[in-house]
Amino acid sequence: MVKLNEETRENYMENIIKAAVKEDIEEFRLLFLELHPADQTDVFLSLEKPERKRVYEFLSPEEFAEIFEGLEIDEQKEIALELNERYAAEMFNSMYADDVADFFGELDHEYARDILLAMDHEDADDVRELLTYEEGTAGSIMTKEFISVKAADTVGDVIELLRQEGPDAETIYYLYVVDEIGKLAGVTSIRDLITSYSDETIENIMSTRVVSVHVKTDQEEVAQLIQKYDFLAAPVVTDHHMLLGIVTVDDVIDVLEEEATEDLGEITASRGATDVTLTSFQAAKRRTPWIVLLMFFGLGTAEVISTFEETLESVVLLAAFIPMVMGSAGNTGTQSLAVAVRALATGTLEKRGFWKTIIREFSTGLFIGVVCGVVITFLLGLFYGDFFLGAIVGASIMISLGTSSVIGTTIPMIINKLKMDPAIASGPFITTLSDIISLMIYFTIATSLLQSVS
């Protein structure tokens, strides 16, 4: 199998395109099918529509299925419209049911219905079943292509079964043992098989301590479980422990990427707008509500400043350091937010405890604040010759950073307790809230100290 590097990619692709244009099917297949599937996808995407139509003629639906699986969902939607119904149906028959269900879940009902009617009944039924599960659950990401065996089977029988059914399974490293009615009873592995005698029964080599997930378990919890136990796959069961399917590690990688993207969008107040393929209008439409909402919250800073107008008039230079105090507090709050959301996502918060985490972040913010406060007090005294002003700004930064750390940690935890995604405590929201509180601290300290010396 050929793997392209930057030096050979251009020439190789040029030869493939030439073969496609000349309709030299033998040359095209020779060059194209020698490529790694990932490179096949790259080459295919570089082709224009007329050349892509030749690819559909030159490759069987089974061969094209690997390319289709490597495409992004938007690319799949575009390419699917170029395929005739029969070709598409045969291609989907060759794909794993969970990948087909993921694609159909993004389409309009009519197209999916027509293709399902054209697919093999058994494959179509598997896809229909997966589409019935709620999005974001173990059931919606599991695959139906797995191998189950009986406890009474011998090792020799199972190895023969693997030769027959293994090529169609998504993974064969784990083999799940079920009883007569399909209830999960144990698990064994390829290692167990090849290190056992052919006449040994599965019952004697299987493990009955099976870690499984419920079909309605949230996909993020499934990902955490597979990550925790270093599994390649995890069985999915019903309330009565009936084996329905398996979630494989490649699906978990997709889930982790999806969840990370979603959390990033929440934290930056740009949920649903992080995709660079969106048009400017689409991105603006999704991001504007957050910005408008935060703009109204920002009016609070104006209200705080107006409340302490007399203090500001007495020492006008205080206004020069408002951005510094607000910015430092907002940045520290965002850092604590990231720590809290990460701890909640990985489950480390439960191990450490709520109050220990709060105290830890407050102490961290306070230590940073002390360092920043001392530095700014020294600098203002040195450059402005006013250590009193430096003390006001320094003390304000010290207390603001400690307070902002608590805000950035506490709010996502409260949101999590309310059974909501903690990532919705976005960075801009935390920053705006920290701005208002840090201003109140700044002017309260300034007013108190000025009154004490007057």
List the topology elements:
Blueprint: H1 6-21, H2 25-32, H3 37-45, H4 49-58, H5 61-69, H6 73-80, H7 85-94, H8 97-104, H9 109-118, H10 121-132, H11 138-141, E1 148-150, H12 155-165, E2 174-178, E3 184-189, H13 190-194, H14 202-205, E4 213-214, H15 219-229, E5 233-237, E6 243-248, H16 249-267, H17 280-307, H18 309-314, H19 322-346, H20 348-352, H21 354-384, H22 387-417, H23 427-453
Parallel strand pairs: 1-2, 4-5
Antiparallel strand pairs: 2-3, 5-6
Description:
With 454 residues, the protein is mainly alpha-helical. The longest helix has 31 residues, at 354-384. The model has no long low-confidence stretch (mean pLDDT 85). It folds into three domains: 6-136, Alpha Horseshoe (MgtE N-terminal fold), CATH 1.25.60.10; 148-248, CBS-domain (Roll), CATH 3.10.580; 280-453, Tetracycline Repressor, domain 2 (Orthogonal Bundle). It has helices at residues 6-21, 25-32, 37-45, 49-58, 61-69, 73-80, 85-94, 97-104, 109-118, 121-132, 138-141, 155-165, 190-194, 202-205, 219-229, 249-267, 280-307, 309-314, 322-346, 348-352, 354-384, 387-417, 427-453, and strands at 148-150, 174-178, 184-189, 213-214, 233-237, 243-248. It is elongated and about 95 Å long. Strands 1-2-3 form a three-stranded mixed sheet. It has a three-stranded mixed sheet with strand order 4-5-6. Helix 15 links the parallel strand 4 (213-214) and strand 5. Helix 1 packs antiparallel against helix 2, helix 15 packs across helix 16 (249-267) and helix 17 (280-307) packs parallel to helix 23. It is built from 23 helices and six strands.
